[in-house]
């Protein structure tokens, strides 16, 4: 089980049942409860193994972990989406493993290495991110945690770069790491550039900072020896589909990459996947070796202790969740799941384009549609039409959310909920139109 | 349900069944699976509520959350210990709530305020830690996370103090927050002082730092306007028993307090309870208000958004776990559970004291016993007897752990596992003695 054979997983393209079908959840849920109850009934029969070799541990995974989940390898097992994460959570929590270091529960560490390498392979990330290639993956809680580490350096001159569309997680990490807010450069993005990070603006900003004696530290461009991190929290999942892979083509030079499996990859919170080419940089910031965690294996420096790559010392058996997803769905079904959401987003986009009161604000690449209402009378009035449009959109959002029938955030219409079907998208569009009608008739 | 009536909880002292009794777990587990399956079967019947008032939300908790767990309020519900956390985890994960801010899932925030106030009351913490008293509690992942925030200040001169016995979580937080390792003062503790933080040594160290132009920043003593944090990760739980409460008597002047419910309070990872008298200090470091999370309630500043008191933006419904524990066991059973572990530790201590080859190294206050083997021949040899004793203890530990029958860490013998009974302690002691016999006969 040490390497992922994509062609084998492709074969597992059994029928897809509704992933949250209550009866199927009920059936499988009961099997799981019995599985965990049996585990506790027999718990004293298991010896407490002092870890020996990787081989022994892998045998233990084979012997104690895998049989427990084979019930779910049936065709219907490919059914449940969030409940797959949920099922993994039950298994992980039910066995209640704490994996500071490898020794505290070796299979937790081993399984994490395996699934992170599998997922790296599915994403076609460079081999330099592979454990064997001196890189490696680690499961974090969320992006906020995943990017909160830094090599020791003079904080006063360390500069961090992102676009003005960068997730606030970066700003938060900067604050907590003690880097002054004014050292964070949010490069202005434009609609004409699809709200992307503009290389020219970035280069100009960095040049100005270097001339001012500041030290580019975190985000982009090999030229300046900056740590480049790619945050693909949401969209990263789609990159397991060949037709979407090109979106991360340019990041071959990056130092680290994150994808949040709890966002669009069928696990529940928390499950943020971080890969780094050189994990020793993480370890410089995050490693501590207290006396009570010392052991022969750690002292030998031949084993991986995940506590050194993450903020929290205690950590649960998150790999179980991801492992269950990869194993039970297989590449083909995972791709189809993601594609079905993108297809629904395309449908919504079409509906929008057919109503000239609405505008698609940013290009839709995956299953997120950014739109706004922009009725002609406002658009045509020269004075403060932007402010008036913003005000109108705010009212529309409050009106829709206030109805209790559809709920959206202020920035996007996201196709992400596992239970979503086309009929829900069509219904939501009708609700949006009705509220727009009512609002515009009042104005 | 806004205040905890201890005398009412005391009444719920039903019989205690083995907390991990497999058959009882099986029975309750099946009920839970049906409960969650029913929830998904009826999910479309629920309206999506736009949050209105605290009152409405509390009614929703009453209507949608509480009925779901009443099945487990039967006498046998007092049975499961780690599975109580496990059950809370199932409920929390099964409903899959993400609670960035109050609006994203109001009951998650409301329930967290309630349980944190309840637990504060059980611990008899000052009212200044209460939400109504402008203080407040927040559930974090682990201690490492809970203490990782700092007000913006000049990092180069900020000094952090702890004893040399302080958990490495503090050192890790200092590293990540960008405070230089040399700014962390580990005050030397001594056996004669029971390895506690010595006030005189602390005062002398702080005085010297102040004279050198450095700024005392984090740990102890009101005199210097330092932020005082009390980390009661493990022992804090026991302080709900009146006979142990005096251990935290001295901390009335502290600014913040943590207790890890996942350590000794019947929940699984992660569930670290943090209270602060002035949470605005946390918010200065941890708050970000991205556009996509803006809403009327947040803008009004009348509601609590937990994302501002914690590193990660996304957060699961952890309050469910703690709530289930407090509700299902009640104060009396919780105290008895903790006392039973302390009683077992006392037994182990007695066994140790009856064997003159062993020494209890630090006073046993709760259910942890720190001991070492110190056979007379080594003790009496004047030259390097400490090193030889350490070497012997290391060998003993490796020998015991290598047997696969008992597993201990290098610092303590901890009575904490929920399934533990006296017979397990007695058996472990026999294993320790056997390995000591074998080791000493070889030397």
What does this structure look like?
The first copy, chain A, is globular, with a radius of gyration of 24 Å. In chain A, α2 runs parallel beside α4 (82-95) and α5 packs parallel to α12. The first copy, chain A, starts with 5 loop residues before the first helix and ends with a helix. Chain A folds into two domains: 97-317, Aspartate Aminotransferase, domain 2; 334-442, Aspartate Aminotransferase, domain 1 (Alpha-Beta Complex). Chain A has helices at residues 6-11, 22-41, 54-69, 82-95, 106-122, 143-146, 168-176, 199-211, 261-264, 280-286, 296-300, 319-353, 376-380, 385-403, 422-442; strands at 136-140, 158-163, 184-187, 215-218, 229-231, 256-260, 272-276, 358-360, 368-369, 371-373, 413-414. Chain A is α/β, with parallel strands linked by helices. Helices cover 44% and strands 9% of the residues of chain A. At the A-B interface, α2, α4, α6, α7 and α14 of A face α2, α4, α6, α7 and α14 of B.
């Amino acid at each position: 089980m040490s390497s992922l054979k994509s062609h084998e997983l492709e074969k597992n393209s059994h029928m897809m049942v509704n992933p949250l079908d209550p009866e199927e959840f009920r059936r499988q849920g009961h099997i799981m409860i019995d599985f965990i109850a049996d585990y506790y009934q027999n718990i004293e029969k298991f010896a407490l193994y002092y870890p020996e070799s990787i081989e022994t541990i892998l045998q233990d995974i084979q012997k104690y972990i895998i049989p427990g989940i084979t019930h779910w390898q049936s065709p219907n097992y490919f059914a449940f989406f969030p409940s797959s994460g949920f099922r993994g959570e039950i298994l992980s929590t039910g066995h209640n493993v704490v994996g500071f270091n490898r020794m505290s529960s070796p299979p937790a560490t081993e399984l994490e290495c395996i699934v992170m390498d599998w997922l790296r392979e599915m994403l076609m990330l460079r081999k330099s991110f592979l454990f064997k290639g001196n890189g490696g993956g680690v499961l974090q809680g969320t992006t906020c945690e995943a990017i909160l580490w830094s090599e020791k350096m003079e904080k006063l001159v360390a500069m961090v770069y992102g676009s003005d569309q960068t997730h606030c997680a970066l700003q938060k990490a900067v604050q907590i790491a003690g880097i002054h807010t004014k050292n964070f450069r949010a490069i202005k993005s434009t609609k004409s550039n699809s709200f992307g990070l503009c290389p020219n603006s970035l280069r100009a900003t960095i040049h100005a900072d270097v001339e001012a004696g500041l030290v580019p530290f975190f985000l982009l461009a090999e030229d300046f020896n900056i740590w480049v991190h790619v945050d693909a929290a949401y969209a990263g999942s789609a990159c397991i589909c060949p037709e979407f892979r090109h979106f991360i083509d340019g990041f071959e030079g990056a130092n680290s990459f994150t994808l949040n499996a709890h966002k669009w990859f069928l696990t529940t919170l928390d499950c943020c996947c971080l890969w780094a080419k050189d994990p020793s940089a993480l370890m410089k910031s995050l490693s501590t070796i207290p006396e009570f965690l010392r052991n022969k294996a750690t002292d030998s420096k031949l084993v991986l202790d995940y506590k050194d790559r993450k903020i929290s010392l205690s950590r649960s058996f998150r790999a179980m969740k991801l492992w269950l997803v990869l194993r039970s769905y297989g590449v083909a079904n995972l791709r189809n799941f993601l594609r079905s959401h993108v297809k629904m987003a395309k449908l919504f986009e079409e509906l929008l384009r057919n109503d000239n009161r609405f505008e698609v604000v940013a290009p839709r690449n995956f299953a997120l549609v950014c739109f706004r209402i922009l009725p002609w009378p406002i658009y045509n009035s020269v004075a403060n039409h932007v402010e008036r449009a913003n005000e109108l959109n705010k009212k529309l959002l409050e009106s829709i959310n206030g109805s209790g029938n559809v709920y959206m955030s202020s920035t996007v219409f996201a196709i992400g909920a596992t239970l979503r079907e086309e009929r829900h998208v069509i219904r939501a569009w009708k609700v949006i139109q009705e509220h727009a009608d009512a609002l515009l008739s009042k104005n």
